[in-house]
Amino acid sequence: MVKRIVPDRCAGAIVDVQDFFLSQLGSRRAGMETNTAAFARLLGYFRIPILATIERPVDAKGSLPAALAQCLGAGARLFEKDFFDLTKEKKIRDHLARLKRKRLVVAGCETDVCVLQSCLGLIDLGYEVFVLEDLIFSSARNVDAAVARMKAAGAVFLTYKTLYYELIQAVDGGRHGAAMRAAFGPFPDDLPDQAVE
């Protein structure tokens, strides 16, 4: 059976997109912030709940960038966490269970630490995990082993562009047409269909 991303069956997870980690990206930082904000806006348009995590200590690692925080809608929840694996936090596990959505689309950092451990934890709890390969990052130069491990565990990798069009396909057969406008309102003209580099 093909695993499809359908708005009423999925949720989004933005893992530890904080100043401490973003500062390690150098010239790629602005693009990652822009892309993650677009991801939040895209999910918000389709009324897909988002959980965002920030790693403690927050005073040392920072909170979400202001532009990203502004893009999180009413359906988003922000959690602080002490563990690499977000599923080790009872409040987060309970929140996910209340959502009753078994597909999680994941973005954030670090690819080889918190993203990896969170994806493994989610899969272990029975969630279907989709990882946005152009919206994950790490301070490490090579994260191939972490990506391979997530794939071997069952995580499906896709791009922001693929997610964008798959959501439209799920709602309106691949058009920005009447069914989508009726369900969710006018589509934002300024929402990009692909990640910036």
Tag the structure with descriptive keywords.
six-stranded parallel beta sheet; 6 strands; about 200 residues; single chain; Rossmann fold; alpha/beta; 9 helices
Measured between the Cα atoms of the first and last residue, the distance is: 33 Å
Low-confidence stretches: none
- DSSP summary, beta strand count: 6
How would you state the average pLDDT, rounded? 95
In the CATH hierarchy, the third-tier topology is known as Rossmann fold
How many domains would you count in the coordinates?
1
State the major sheet.
Answer: 6 strands, parallel
Give a description of the structure.
The protein has 197 residues and is α/β, with parallel strands linked by helices. The protein has a single domain, classed as Isochorismatase-like (Rossmann fold). The protein has nine helices and six strands. Helix 6 runs parallel beside helix 7. It starts with 9 loop residues before the first strand and ends in a 13-residue tail after the last helix. The model has no long low-confidence stretch (mean pLDDT 95).
